[in-house]
Structures are given as structure tokens and as C-alpha cells.
Amino acid sequence: MGLLDNFEKGLERAVNGAFAKTFKSGLQPVEITSALKREIDTKAAVVSRDRVLVPNTFTVRMSPADYSRMSALGPTLVDELTDLVQKHAASQHFQFAGGISITLRADESLSEGMLQVDSANVKGDVAWTPVLEINGARHPILKGRTVIGRGSDADITVDDTGTSRKHVEVQWDGRRARVRDLGSTNGTQLDGQPVKESILEPDSVITIGRTRIVFRVLAQASAPSPSRTEPATERHDMGGFWGPAQ
Prior knowledge:
Layout: H1 2-18, H2 29-43, E1 45-48, E2 51-53, E3 57-62, H3 64-71, H4 76-91, E4 100-106, E5 115-120, E6 126-134, E7 137-140, E8 144-149, E9 156-157, E10 168-172, E11 177-181, E12 189-190, E13 193-194, E14 197-200, E15 205-208, E16 211-221, E17 232-237
Parallel strand pairs: 3-4, 8-9
Antiparallel strand pairs: 1-2, 3-5, 4-17, 6-7, 6-16, 8-10, 10-11, 11-14, 12-13, 12-15, 15-16
Helix pairs in contact: 1-2, 1-4, 2-4
Organism: Agromyces atrinae
Protein name: DUF2662 domain-containing protein
Keywords: Phosphoprotein
């Protein structure tokens, strides 16, 4: 378990380090990552020899003061927490019954620095949504082809003189994605290597000029969310790329 422990500690350090300036006191992001990991491990249920089911819906409760600091980051923190849940489950060969949902909520019964994680295993349909993250902005892409470049006629325009007017395209058929260079002047890289055309895996990084493009696939739970009586920050995502565990 040594390598796995180091992997998980690295993820926790990354999450904590990313927001260290924001959270100088009270609850720390690293404490949330540890709590989510414990919740997954504790609630893992062996269904068969090849199937271990874990919760896919998490509510993280914290004091109003801690919630205010956490929610100020928008979806960024929950994105990082979701990645941790996905990677930890994958490393342990755990499976989900539906899309992952992580919700942050304020709870006046909790003191600053304290948290509580509630979880459930919720079966539901999953709607796969591919997105491209560019300079901190998230661009959903539709079925077909999405052209990226500095020209105004590109589907996604980037302010980068190192890119061609129509530099690269991302193709999406509903389940799989490909990247294709469109004969650009400076070329395209995929995960640091020159590429003309290739399959895109989740979290692949496309580089054109000085622009870094991250390809992600979000698996949003299509079941209706319960009504809320408290403020909350939500994100839905899914471990695995090509479909929910069967």
C-alpha cells in the first residue's frame, strides 16, 4: 500500500496547496479529502468477487464560516474533490452505481474546523458531457466537431498569436473523442508529444501555441436533485469514462 498511500497523499497536498492562501484557519481542504476517502473505504460493499460498490452521493457539512470560505472558490474546490474521489475509487477498483455528486453545505450545529460527511449509493442514469477547460474557463462541446483557434470563425476563439486561425479540432461522437491538427503553422501537442490525430482520453492536455486545453468528460446524474433548504455548492462527475459500472 506504500505507493498508493503516496499517491493519495500527493493528491491531498495538491488540493490543500492550491487553496492554502484562502484557508489560513478553520477547516482545511486536505481534511475534506481525507474524510471523503474514509467515507468511501468505510462504506465499500462487496457485491460479488469482481464488484465492490461504494457511495456516489456525498454531502459535506461544515460550519457557516468554513462554508463561506469554501464556496467562495466556486466549483474549483469541488472539482478537485471530485477528481480525488474518482482516482481513489479507481485505484481500489471500486465501482459506482451512477454519477458522483459532491455537495458542500453549511450546518450551524458544527463548530468552525469541524465537518461531517453523509453519503448514499444512488442509482441513476448518467448524461455524458464533454468539456474543454481553457484558461480557467469551461467550454462544453457538442456532438460533431469543435474547432479551436485564434480566428473569429473558430468555434472556440483563443487570444494566442502562436495559434493558427483554425488550429485544431476536437471530435465527439457521444462516447469517444479525437483530436486532429488542422494543418497549423506551429503544430499541436498532446500530453507533451507532437500529434496530428489521436484518441483523447479523460484529462488529456492539448497544447497549441501558449494555450493549454484540458479535455474532461463529466458524467452528470440525470435524476432530479432533492429540494434544498440550505445553501449548497454542487458538482456531478463519474469515475470511468465510457459508461457507468455494470
